[in-house]
Write a structure and sequence with these properties.
By secondary structure, this protein is mainly alpha-helical. It contains nine helices and no strands.
Length: 190
């Protein structure tokens, strides 16, 4: 998310937050709320959980704001804290890891993805259960490798690969179901 406020204004705002100014905290919260919510929605199954993750993340941001170096960009620092908060939240929610069951190969027509919008795809990802959604996001969206994922989640790299494989199969199934449910609507719209 690109800021509408120039960098100098960002620095002024952050310096005010560092001084404990409540109004500056509110402005910073409002400014980065949308970016934070986008991140949290990738890791949560519903909006209420995303809000909970985001609020926990903001607590961490404000508690550690004095460690933020003013010569750096705020957005990547903020995004990393929110992402780590979301990962921690998911890790707490995972009771026991589910292991991959054998499953048939599922094909998705190329036109299906073209017909879906980003929100439709996000809903399909959110429908994945916690371990699958978490590993899928870490690998496919955040760009972590299986060794990094295993270190963060306390699982083996092979478990990470298995969970990712199952997550992709489950996601394909969800996309196919979505397609079947919405195909009539697309035909009517044409």
């Amino acid at each position: 998310m690109k800021s509408n406020i120039p960098i100098d204004e960002d620095r002024i705002l952050i310096n005010e937050v560092k001084k404990g100014a409540a109004l500056a905290q509110r402005k910073l919260y409002e400014k980065y709320y949308r970016l934070g919510m986008k991140i949290c929605l990738r890791y949560s199954s519903d909006i209420e959980s995303a809000k909970e993750i985001l609020n926990d993340g903001y607590v961490k941001v404000f508690r550690s704001i004095n460690r933020f170096e003013s010569n750096r960009k705020f957005e990547p620092w903020f995004s990393k804290i929110i992402t780590n908060t979301a990962i921690d939240y998911c890790r707490r929610k995972i009771g026991e890891m589910l292991y991959v069951e054998s499953s048939e190969q599922i094909e998705i027509e190329a036109t299906v993805i073209d017909e879906m919008n980003a929100n439709d795809l996000l809903r399909c990802i959110q429908d994945l259960s916690n371990p699958y959604r978490l590993v899928f996001n870490l690998y496919e969206i955040e760009g972590f490798n299986h060794t990094e994922i295993s270190n963060r989640l306390g699982i083996t790299p092979s478990s990470s690969r298995s969970i990712l494989s199952r997550a992709k199969r489950m996601l394909k199934q969800k996309i196919n179901v979505f397609t079947k449910e919405n195909k009539e609507n697309w035909l009517i719209a044409d």
